[in-house]
Sequence to fold (257 residues):
Amino acid sequence: MQTKKNTATAPYDDFSKFLPHISIDCCVFGFHENQLKILLIKWEKFGVWSLPGGFIFPEESVDAAAKRILQERTSLQNIFLEQFKIFGEVNRTNLPGSREMLERSEVDSQTQQWLLQRTISLGYYALVDFSKAIPTTTPLIADCRWWDISKVPHLIHDHADIVKHALKALQGHLLNKPIGLNLLPTKFTMTELRRLYETILGKTIDRRNFEKKMLKLGILDRLDEVKTDVGHKAPVLYRFNLATYDELLNADFGFGF
Fold:
């Protein structure tokens, strides 16, 4: 997976330019080789992993800030983005070990105070095409990479809890709205779509029942093409019908898996 480095640090070296006491944390999900992935960053000075996130400029809406943050980390635009929960525990950014971590990092005292202040975080999840996203680092971020959702390392603050709630929100989305447009390639097989659903839900879905429900929804167009380079009978390819997909995206229809 290609990684890009952005050498610009401003304005993230001056926290005074942002609104105090409020931040954004993003769970960026991708799907690759039948595995649900999540994008994480490792901070240069702190040596710890976290969700991609950041702060909000006074002139920005919260959604605009989330889109900016995600574009900086993935180089993608027009990302599917959903705000799912507000995290506001009193000590969420000052949990045991947080202050010691900052002291070891030797960041200046003003930055330490900013990062340890009580901060409410808006949780977003994003669904992106794994093959098109370019994980991007900066001088402040030592690493930015995909992790299997089952192998997430220790995360800073309450970010493990944020991931847990994001998965729950994603599962709820999947049961009431179509999913896959932002996670699968343009052309895909019915098996690939079913495995996406199974991976997110964490359970096996009956193949015939799944196919019947998907076709009944009208969100799939069957193509006169088959998947190539497979060692068995070539499966038929599908793509999403964007008009029907968008219509159902704005209406709760209930899947019942």
Observations:
- Residues 185-249 form a domain with the Arc Repressor Mutant, subunit A fold (CATH 1.10.10.10).
